[in-house]
Fold:
Amino acid sequence: MPLRSKYGSNGTRAVLWAAAGKTGRRIQVYAGMEENMKYEITVGEVKAANSNVKGYASVVFGDSFKVSNITILANRDNQLYISMPHYAKSGDGERKDICYPTTKEFRGELEANILLALENLQKTGEKKYFVGDEQDKELPFTVAVTPFEKENSSIRGLARIYIADCFAVGNISLIMGKKGLFVSMPSYKTNQIDENNRSVYRDICFPVTAEFRGKLNTLMTDAYEKAAAEVQEQIWGQEEGFMLGQDFPDMDLPTR
Structure:
């Protein structure tokens, strides 16, 4: 029987907004509200000797969005902690998390529940561990999109998702393909090769239902188009010798 956590998670009302630089205009679309966000943790144990890696975990928020490649590690004192999926910044070797809790409270809650999930697996053999309300509710999230263009690149925008004001997913790109604009989730390169002798990539974070994927893609591309229009309007204004007025306070993005 899957175990349900004693650590709850409170969500808040969410809005969608697109960032077009400090002089952009705020764009809001309500994307649901939730009193008690639920999420499902799946864990696997690593039993290799002389390794500080003790397990791996994935989290599905609200039956809608999955975050994988979370590592459970042990420090020198054999105390367990979690490491979010990350990449090494070129040049300086610094590691930057691809997705992460944006509040101290939720970071503590998520880590505690993942470690409890591993403990429960060791005791019962059950890999799944549930947190929050059992009832199906719409997952609250916000999306921030910034137009971005680089010479000889198909990337048109960069984006982040904020889940329930407590968890962020970055490294999302909006790419112009042969069939138009599409959303590319953060991914990693595997050791596999496809039938065309090209490397296979797997998403680290992604929607788990077609319905949520469609909703997320639509909101994100709409936000990009509105933000891109704002940027173009500013460029025209500069060419005419005037600047558009700023009609909202500077947006304070959660940072680490």
